[in-house]
């Protein structure tokens, strides 16, 4: 190999390996069929994409780019979080600035929009609007966002000045379209002239299936019907699922020669594959206690969305969680369902709010074991849920302790002399080891000065889950003595029918076990009661676990050898075993 000065250079083995890896990586980039250079993307737009760390397109983007740029109507289907927004955004921007729509679109002050994008919620609308803003500035385009819950006037001013791209929710766009430019019966809006759809080049329905679920059927059809000459408009419909209404919209408003790109097809798994799907049993009364712990354990400091069934639930939870805000229709945008979703499409969309653009995420669904439909969601969405118990207080304490340790590491060494004498005196006077004293200090910093028990079945605090085993199958819960029936909760048989799990109030545990003395010579048909497994002993007993079975398919139960049960006095924490 020759350098610029003509001298030969002998590479070391490490240098040769590095050069080979660099060459291989360059070759891979050149061979990437989805690389930006493989598509008709202008240099300015390509540079903006690279600044955002985008050097190649996702499958849905690559498969639809040329179809859209060439002017065809399109139905695009992909799982949530797979890049559908950029799939329509890139070819539209390219068409407006360098493609077929460039010469025919209107420019100048007061110009009507060339693009209309409809989304089901104001949050999604503002997100897509923000994405457009990243690119349209460098391309000389203007974008505005229309949504409810905020004043009309600023939005009207933006439209009056002229916008190339309008993004918004069906309700607000219908209002300005109906009472503004279209001059219908309401006199108050006749003179507004706020939006003009006569020069439209593109109309996009993003998350079309969600618009159906949220009741925007009439609004969407009204807006699409406002375009007088639909033959001059390119219509793009993107959706994660294809219910009948979406198919109806496609047949009614898209051209007959429309193209379809479906990345889901008949695959059983319809939810995002980048999301870890977890279900967790939890009674309604325990949810406000358990949600902060779930966030603490699973969020890793990232952002969290909690879906609730009602507006009141959202507001109540927002008041209980530090740093949380409620988002619902009764709250103004400027300030703006712990229950499982009612249908499969809703779960697919909600779980898809995380794990987007190739990143991973976690979706935790709380359910009431007595009235849950999560098995239907699992069956129809193709999701294989992980069954977890609620984070036990010891788990939360460990996470909090790790965070407290990080805080200690951040403290300046200059403060050590101030506290060193007190620390040395504490070590000398205490019977505890330095490590044990530090553990107590971390517990205090983390706010965990005591560890409470929590049910594995319902997540209720101050309840423990007890395992009852019998030598023969239990055909009915009536084997339990009548005087103890009222003191237990959530009785469920194990899958093999030879045991049961149930909750007992923490203060009643010793008395309950005493009521069922376990004797070493107990017969095969006698009941044997094990208390709860202590979290510190989980590591010790994990090798002895005989099996992990489910209780009616909705909760975990651990079966242990008899001798292990005889030697243990307390049980908790099956998650992770």
Describe this structure in words.
With 577 residues, this protein is α/β, with parallel strands linked by helices. It folds into 4 domains: 205 residues, Rossmann fold (3-Layer(aba) Sandwich), CATH 3.40.50; 113 residues, P-loop containing nucleotide triphosphate hydrolases (Rossmann fold, 3-Layer(aba) Sandwich), CATH 3.40.50; 50 residues, no CATH class; 105 residues, 2-Layer Sandwich (Alpha-Beta Plaits). It is 38% helix and 13% strand. The protein has 21 helices and 16 strands. Helix 6 links the parallel strand 3 and strand 4. Helix 2 crosses helix 5 and helix 7 crosses helix 9. The protein is globular. It starts with 12 loop residues before the first helix and ends in a 10-residue tail after the last helix. The N terminus and C terminus are likely disordered. InterPro entries: DD_DDX21-DDX50 (IPR059027), DEAD/DEAH_box_helicase_dom (IPR011545), DEAD/DEAH_RhlB (IPR044742), DEAD_box_RNA_helicases (IPR050547), GUCT (IPR012562), Helicase_ATP-bd (IPR014001), P-loop_NTPase (IPR027417), RBD_domain_sf (IPR035979). One of its GO terms (molecular function) is ATP binding. Belongs to the DEAD box helicase family. Pfam families: DD_DDX21-DDX50, DEAD, GUCT.
